[in-house]
Amino acid sequence: MKETKPTLKVTGIAEYVRNKAKRKQTLFTITPAGSFYFHEGERIKESEFNAQFPLDLKPVNFKGENPDGTKVE
């Protein structure tokens, strides 16, 4: 019998894929003043762009605390 591996269940996959595509299609430049994305005709700092289009996947099941009081994520 073939053994199966457990899968990681996450939420936000559709948003992750949209944001990943947006990052791939948006012009990125590195200058002495910093790194910037050019989005919709505007120059946006890399940190602001990352905040607008985050690449986060959130686990579906948060385990919380164990009976012995330790926290597991």
Could you please describe the fold and organization of this structure?
This protein has 73 residues and is an alpha+beta fold. The chain has a domain at 27-56. It is built from 2 helices and 7 strands. The protein has helices at 13-25, 46-52, and strands at residues 10-11, 27-31, 34-39, 42-45, 58-59, 64-65, 71-72. It has a 3-stranded antiparallel β-sheet with strand order 2-3-4. A hairpin with a 5-residue loop joins strand 6 (64-65) and strand 7 (71-72). The chain is elongated. The two termini are 31 Å apart. The mean pLDDT is 82.
Topology, pairings included?
Blueprint: E1 10-11, H1 13-25, E2 27-31, E3 34-39, E4 42-45, H2 46-52, E5 58-59, E6 64-65, E7 71-72
Antiparallel strand pairs: 1-5, 2-3, 3-4, 6-7
Q: Count all strands and give the number.
A: 7
Structural class: alpha+beta
Number of helices: 2
Main sheet summary = 3 strands, antiparallel
What attributes characterize this protein structure?
2 helices, 73 residues, 7 strands, alpha+beta
Briefly say what this structure is.
The protein is an alpha+beta fold and 73 residues long. It is built from two helices and seven strands.
